[in-house]
Amino acid sequence: MKNILSQIIMKLKTNFEKLKLKAKKIKKELRVLYIACQRPDIPWYTKLIAILVVGYALSPVDLIPDFVPVLGYLDDIIIVPAGISLVIKLIPQNILAECREKENEAFKDGKPKNWIAGTLIIGLWIILIALVIEKILKILHFKWYINR
Fold first, then answer.
1. Inter-helix orientation angle 80-90/2-37, to 10°
2. Which of 37, 110, 135, 145 has the greatest count of CB atoms below 10 A from its CB?
3. Chain segment 7-39, per-residue pLDDT in tens
4. Where in the cell is it found (predicted)?
């Protein structure tokens, strides 16, 4: 029993270390994309996708809040890494190599916040909540709502 428990603990530690390494790699690649977004020599469509991915990842607000069970972390686990992979495939390799070299010095003071993306996401939530409330009011047939 003790042997099995120690094997399980060792596996958990190993998996946790792998997960930490992947998270560090994603964080590093995100910084590289941030630098690449600022370059004029990448195609406009690549820049647009990169700006969306970096903006979303650096946004202080998530599209799906983290407190929502399971789905809250789905965007952090799937959407952001998939977007990063897509943009990395679209950026020419020589430009990507240059951005990777500049990555360390560019983020000495920490990551920048993208308040524009955060504002857009908050706006999306407000619109979504308003639509849900409107739908509920229609279903419940409130008198004051029908007379509008």
1. 50
2. 37
3. 888 888 888 788 778 878 888 888 888 888 888
4. Endomembrane system
Q: What is the pTM (predicted TM-score) of this model?
A: 0.60
3-state helix, strand, coil in the chain (%, to 5): 80, 0, 20
Q: What secondary structure does DSSP assign to 67-86, as a single string?
A: TSTTHHHHIIIIIHHHHHHH
Residue with tokens 């406009």: 44
How many whole angstroms separate alpha carbon 57 and alpha carbon 70? 18
Angle formed by the axes of helices 93-106 and 2-37, nearest 10°: 100
Contact 100, 32 (CB under 8 A): yes
31 CB neighbour count, 10 Å cutoff:
20
